[in-house]
Amino acid sequence: MSKLTGIRRGIAFAAIILGYFMALLDTTIVNVTLPEMTRQFNTALDDMSWIVNGYNLAFAVFLITASRIADQFGRKRLFLIGTVLFVVTSILCGLSTSVETMVFYRVLQGLSAAIVVPVTIPLAADLFPKEKHGMVLGIWGAISSLAAASGPTLGGILTNSIGWEAIFFVNVPIGIAAICLAIPLIRESFDTSAGRKIDWLGVLTLSAAMFCITYGLINVSEWGWDSLEFIGYMAAFLVSIVLFFIVELRTSVPMLPLWLLRILPFNGAVLTLVMIGAGITASTYLMSYFLTGILGKSILEAGITISAMSLASMVISAITGGMSNKYGSRWFVTAGMGILALSFYLYGSLNAASTEWSVVWRLILTGVGIGLSVAPVMGASIRNVPEEKIGIASGIMNMSRAIGSVLGVAILVSVLNTALSHYSGEAVNKIKLQIESNADLSAEAKEVILEQVGRMVQEKSSAGAKNAEGAVLLQLDTMEKALLSEADESVKQELQAAFTQQRQELGQQLSQVSTDLQDAFVASFSRTFHAGGWFLLLGIPFALISDRRVGKRLAIEPSIKDFAAEKDA
Fold first, then answer.
1. Residue 382 and residue 269 in contact, taking contact as beta carbons nearer than 8 Å
2. Which of 82, 240, 250, 352 is most open to solvent, judged by the fewest CB atoms within 10 Å of its CB?
3. Spatial separation of the C-alpha atoms in residues 103 and 124, rounded to whole Å
4. Considering the entire predicted model, what is its pTM?
5. pLDDT tens digit sequence for 128-184
6. Cα–Cα distance measured from residue 439 to residue 359, given in angstroms and rounded to the nearest whole number
7. C-alpha distances in Å from residue 28, one per residue of 54, 141, 395
């Protein structure tokens, strides 16, 4: 434990938290600015998605490797290197003039985040005695929620008032403050049992495995679960992970001590965090679509609404971190997983007429579930491994959460797309029959409406009916002016009456189109949320084994010698 006391210890902890907050902020602050970047770079939204995916991919792939290198060569050193790199890449992202350079710098930024995030837990744990670790992780979890809550709102404010570049430049003062405070106040720490030899084969095979599974899951909604591309990446993942275990069993200095995977509570915590990661990311991802597409909110309004979840999580995390250290984690985590699953299922009862409060209280319930589970399960993971291995354990836990995030989105987006194909397919067929059989609509009006219907299905939004109405009305006005300018006075009144009738018919038809598609979208989201609720229940068995019973946990303090003796026996 560090010898710092009082205010100096608090400032050192603040330096660590600033670095952690900065890295997590960039996972959410970018999303709200993508439409503006798409417009300025004059490119497709699919290309822009890699500004997010590139960051997440690099982050997931290098977490464990960065943790191991930090254990070997110094956690403070890696924290400073990662923070400096994050500041530099943030500046480069803000100065980017093309999508290609932006994606490249975002990948480097994700790599730097992978260096910073996992070392924050062992560095913070080194500042405080063991009895305070629960409190530290509670604050750590609260900061995680604060970053998630402030990202969309801060991104929207900075983009609207300054420009999208500001979302990257805001990292500069935060990073510089973290560096200036960390250099004099944080002491260096190592895993004294790790040695200095780098297991290059282990790094290569594990990185390949993490890349294949993450990249495959990111793209599966586009490729399909039975596509050759996805199957190929999953096969490559299996080959790489098998090779990794073979390498680790044969090397004298493995990057990942495999005996850690024999600790049942640690395995339970890892698998629980996969499910928590799936629930957190999938809920924010799907609710963003629901709020903008069904309830008609702007992206900024949706971000502010979703922040209710993160704020609730922040409050609960700050409370449960210390309590779980005293009373054990598994019942907190089990209750959290149950509440998270329940809240996800309850999203399925929302519809187009739902009030703001009916959405917010469900989001708060989700936040309570997250707050009850994240900090306690992280606390359990570091309590049930030797103190020297907190660094690599932190890397594994953060990696499992990252994998869970892409897994949850991949599964539930596939469920949503399947449901949309079913419900919207029925609605579109019905709409086509109604429009084509309507003798009062012109051929031009029918064509524009059907084109807009296809766009609405693709965007998962019923709001496009207004766009269709505007486009058709513009055509009608143009036609009316042209015909009236050439018509005799005797037929002008009849023509005006015909166009008035056309407008009325158009309004009725588009109102019905909007209603039919909205019903289809609501039914699709409802099925997806219900499926997500049942899926998250799978996390409860893992939560139940994520920590030892309190008496046993207090009686057995794990040490590297105990595990080494057990391994040799």
1. no
2. 250
3. 32
4. 0.80
5. 877 777 777 788 778 877 777 777 778 777 877 888 888 899 999 999 999 999 998
6. 42
7. 13, 16, 21
